[in-house]
C-alpha cells in the first residue's frame, strides 16, 4: 500500500511541475496515518486472522505516527463474535506510536473475537485512519483444568445432580412435565417427560430430593396427563401445551397421536409406578392413576386395520397421512415391547416379527472398525438408538431371534467411538477423549449425527449416556468435557447439547431428550436402578416373553 501511494505521489509531482508557475513551490504532502503492523503474542499475520491464540493474548498495534491518546478509548473495540464487549486494557509504547491491548481476564477457549480499530482513531496532528481495521481472533484449548479434581464417583454424582435440575427446576410450573428445550416456554414433550420422570426417581435415590417431594411432583404430572392432556385412542402427542394440555403440532400434519413418544412416556410412568410401591393412600392412588392411563392406550389400534406393523402417527384431521410404519432398527424397540405388554390392547408376535423386525431385514452382521454389528444400518446409526429404549429395558442378557441386545448396544457404541478416534474426515478435536455422535442440535439447526452423517459436531449425551456399554471410554470423555472444556460446556443444567472444536461452535441449548438419558444411563451404570424397576413390571415380563425374548431379568 505504501509503495503504490509513493509511486502515485512521484508521478503526480512530475506532471504538476511542468504546469506550475516557475515562482510557485508545491506544498509537501503529509505522510498518511496508518496501521503499520500487528502482532498477536509476538506473531504477525498479514491476513489479519489469528487462530489458536492463548486465552490472555497480547495484541500490539504499531502505527506510522504518534497517537492522540484521547481518541483511542472510543476507537478500539474488542468484542466476542456475538457482539458482546470484552473488557480490556490499553497501554502505550514507542512514544505513543504503539498500543498494546490485553483482555482483563482470560478468554474462554475455542472462542472467536474481533478487535476493531475504527477511523475515529487520530494521530497528534489530527489525521485519522483511512479505513477500519478488523482483526479476527480465535482461542485454542487451554489444557489446564477448569474445575478442581474430584473422585470419579463424585464426578458422576455431580453430573447427575446438575442435569437433574433441568427436569426439576426447569419443569413446567403447571404440569410438571419437561419442556422440550430451554427455550420452549409453554411447550412440553411427552418422550422427554418420560425421561424426566425416571430422573425424578434417580433424584430420590441420590438424595437430591425427598421421596415426598418426588411424590408431590408425580401427582401433579399424572393428574395433568389424566385430566388435561389431549389423548388420541389413549396415546399422547409429541408436544403439548404445558398449561392446557392442548396439542402443539410437531409438524404440519403431526397434530395427533405419536405412538413412539407415548411409549417413551410410559417407560417412565411404569418405572415410577414400580418405585412408588408404598402402602399409603397417596402412593396407591398414584399407581392406580398410572394404570388408568396405561390401560387406555389402544396399541393394537395403531396397526391401522390389523396390519402386521405399528404406525407412528395418527391425526384426527389428517388420519394416517404421515404414513410412517415403525420398523427397526432404531430407537423404537420399546414401542413394540409395551404394545405386547398392554393388558387390554396387546399386539401378537407376528406384528413384531413382520413389522418391527421387517421379516429379519433389520439384521446386519457386518464388521465395522473390527466390531461385528448385529443389527441396524451401516456403522450403527446415531447412538440414541442404544439409549432411548434401554433406559428401562435392561439389554444385558436380553435375547431374541435377532440379537443379543447387550452385544448389540456395546458393539454400536464401540463402532461410534472407534470411528471418532480414527477420524477419517480429519475433524479437529476428535480423539479418545472427545467423541460421540448422535441426534442433537447442530450448527445449522438439528441433525442426526452418525459416522455416515458427520460434520464435526460432538454431542455430550452420546458418550455420557453410553456409560453402561463403554465405561472406560465414557469416563475419559466425561473428564475431558468437564475438566478441559468445562468453561464452554458446563452450564446451569449440566452439559450443553452439542459443540464443535472444528468450527469452533458451542450450542446454547439443552434438550430434554438429551439430558434425560445422561442422568438415567449413568444411574443404570452405577446401580441398575431404572433397569431393575422397569423390568420388575409383570406386564413387561409377559410382553417380552410373548415376543420371544429371554432374559435373566424376566
UniProtKB/TrEMBL annotation:
Sequence ranges assigned to domain SbsA Ig-like in this UniProt record: 52-136
Keywords from the UniProt entry: Signal
Top-level taxon of the source organism: Bacteria
Alphabetized InterPro entries for the sequence: Glycoamylase-like_cons_dom, SbsA_Ig
UniProt domain Glycoamylase-like: residue ranges: 325-538
Descriptive protein name: Uncharacterized protein
Organism: Arcticibacter pallidicorallinus
Amino acid at each position: 500500500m505504501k509503495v503504490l501511494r509513493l509511486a502515485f505521489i512521484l508521478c503526480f509531482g512530475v506532471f504538476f511541475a511542468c504546469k506550475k508557475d516557475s515562482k510557485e513551490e508545491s506544498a509537501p504532502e503529509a505522510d498518511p496515518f496508518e496501521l503499520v503492523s500487528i502482532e498477536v503474542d509476538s506473531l504477525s499475520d498479514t491476513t489479519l486472522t489469528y487462530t489458536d491464540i492463548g486465552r490472555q493474548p497480547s495484541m500490539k498495534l504499531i502505527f506510522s505516527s504518534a497517537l492522540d491518546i484521547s481518541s483511542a478509548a472510543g476507537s478500539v473495540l474488542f468484542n466476542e463474535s456475538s457482539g458482546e464487549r470484552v473488557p480490556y486494557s490499553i497501554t502505550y509504547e514507542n512514544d505513543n506510536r504503539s498500543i498494546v491491548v490485553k483482555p482483563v481476564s482470560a478468554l474462554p477457549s475455542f472462542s472467536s473475537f474481533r478487535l476493531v480499530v475504527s477511523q475515529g482513531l487520530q494521530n497528534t496532528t489530527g489525521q485519522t485512519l483511512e479505513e477500519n481495521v478488523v482483526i479476527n481472533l480465535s482461542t485454542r484449548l487451554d489444557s489446564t483444568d477448569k474445575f478442581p479434581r474430584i473422585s470419579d464417583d463424585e464426578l458422576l454424582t455431580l453430573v447427575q445432580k446438575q442435569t437433574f435440575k433441568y427436569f426439576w427446576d426447569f419443569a413446567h410450573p403447571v404440569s410438571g412435565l419437561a419442556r422440550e428445550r430451554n427455550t420452549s416456554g409453554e411447550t412440553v414433550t411427552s418422550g422427554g417427560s418420560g425421561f424426566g420422570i425416571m430422573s425424578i426417581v434417580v433424584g430420590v435415590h441420590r438424595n437430591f430430593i425427598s421421596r415426598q417431594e418426588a411424590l408431590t411432583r408425580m401427582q401433579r404430572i399424572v393428574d395433568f396427563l389424566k385430566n388435561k392432556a389431549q389423548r388420541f385412542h389413549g396415546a399422547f402427542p409429541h408436544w403439548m401445551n404445558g398449561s392446557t394440555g392442548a396439542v402443539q403440532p410437531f409438524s404440519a400434519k403431526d397434530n395427533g397421536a405419536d405412538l413412539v413418544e407415548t411409549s417413551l412416556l410410559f417407560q417412565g410412568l411404569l418405572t415410577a409406578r414400580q418405585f412408588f410401591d408404598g402402602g399409603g393412600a397417596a402412593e396407591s392412588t398414584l399407581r392406580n392413576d398410572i394404570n388408568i392411563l396405561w390401560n387406555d392406550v389402544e396399541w393394537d389400534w395403531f396397526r391401522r386395520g390389523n396390519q402386521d406393523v405399528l404406525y407412528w402417527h395418527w391425526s384426527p384431521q389428517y388420519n394416517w397421512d404421515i404414513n410412517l410404519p415403525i420398523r427397526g432398527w432404531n430407537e423404537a424397540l420399546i414401542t413394540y415391547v409395551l404394545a405386547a405388554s398392554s393388558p387390554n390392547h396387546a399386539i401378537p408376535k407376528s406384528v413384531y416379527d413382520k413389522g418391527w423386525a421387517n421379516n429379519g431385514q433389520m439384521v446386519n452382521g457386518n464388521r465395522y472398525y473390527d466390531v461385528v454389528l448385529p443389527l441396524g444400518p451401516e456403522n450403527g446409526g446415531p447412538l440414541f438408538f442404544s439409549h432411548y429404549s434401554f433406559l428401562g429395558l435392561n439389554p444385558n442378557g436380553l435375547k431374541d431371534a435377532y440379537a443379543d441386545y447387550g452385544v448389540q448396544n456395546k458393539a454400536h457404541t464401540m463402532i461410534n467411538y472407534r470411528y471418532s478416534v480414527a477420524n477419517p474426515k480429519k475433524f479437529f478435536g476428535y480423539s479418545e477423549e472427545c467423541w460421540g455422535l448422535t441426534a442433537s442440535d447442530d450448527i445449522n439447526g438439528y441433525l442426526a449425527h452418525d459416522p455416515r452423517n458427520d460434520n464435526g459436531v460432538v454431542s455430550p449425551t452420546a458418550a455420557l449416556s453410553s456409560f453402561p456399554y463403554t465405561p472406560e471410554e465414557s469416563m475419559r470423555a466425561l473428564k475431558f468435557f468437564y475438566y478441559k472444556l468445562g468453561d464452554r460446556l458446563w452450564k446451569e443444567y449440566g452439559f450443553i447439547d452439542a459443540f464443535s472444536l472444528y468450527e469452533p461452535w458451542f450450542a446454547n441449548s439443552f434438550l430434554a431428550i438429551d439430558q434425560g438419558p445422561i442422568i438415567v444411563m449413568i444411574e443404570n451404570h452405577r446401580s441398575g436402578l431404572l433397569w431393575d424397576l422397569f423390568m420388575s413390571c409383570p406386564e413387561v415380563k409377559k410382553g417380552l416373553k410373548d415376543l420371544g425374548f429371554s432374559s435373566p431379568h424376566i
